[in-house]
Amino acid sequence: MTPAISEYPVSIAIDDQEFKQFQQLLLEKTGIFLSPVKKPLLTGRLNRRLRELGVRSYADYYRAIVLEEFPDELQILINCLTTNETAFFREPRHFDFLRDLCGRPEFLKRMVRVWCAAASSGEEPYSIAMVLADTLRHDNWELIASDVNSEVLDQARVGYYALQRGADIPKHYLQRYCLKGVGQHAGAFVIGPELRGNIRFQRINLVEPLPALGQFDVIFLRNALIYFPADIKLHVIEQTRRFLKLGGHFIVGHSETLLGTVSDFKPVSPSIYRRI
Fold it and tell me: Going from the N-terminus, what domains does the chain have, and what CATH number goes with each?
């Protein structure tokens, strides 16, 4: 029988050796390096989980994950420890670039494919989708939205947000692609089903062998590379670039760069690269 949560202390302590075990596990499974200063973050996010499971120490929790005593617990750990800061139309210059790119005559004549490889809770892929739907204006685009965190992907599939989250969505996009909540859903909005239907949400771990995804015209991998050590960052770039068409564009966050990584990326502007 699992003991009640109240039987355990409010905070379960973690020592340096236990932290290093989780640090190494997260690095191996996701490529993300959890620096020592993030120890309070780890305990803050996992303490309640340990109490829910009736686990009295981080050493026991680590052992249970490694021995697969709790089904799906490794994914739950990943969900707890991966960062998911995002917003609609964050770094707006990228969306201006996408709009201009998709407005070119050659893009209006064929299927346009985009991959958002760090989709989080959906704000970024829905921003991309609004631009694609508005610019191409017919069903000739496809968007794959992926993330290593299965919990935020479930949120993204639903497309339900507090109204204040939509403050940076252009008004005409709000009116065209979003439905305002009423009654018990007042103060919220949901992405319309037509837009959601053109997006394929899929859990993908970028450090593992990638599934067959086809070729893309644009890949967004924004504000994710900064969490990887240099060798894993290079591995992720080399993996994802294989899915980018020659002449396609690879977009990273404003605090990230592809310079000094692979030789076939030419900078178009800061944080936007073209595969040559």
Answer: 5-81 (1.10.155.10), 93-275 (3.40.50.150)
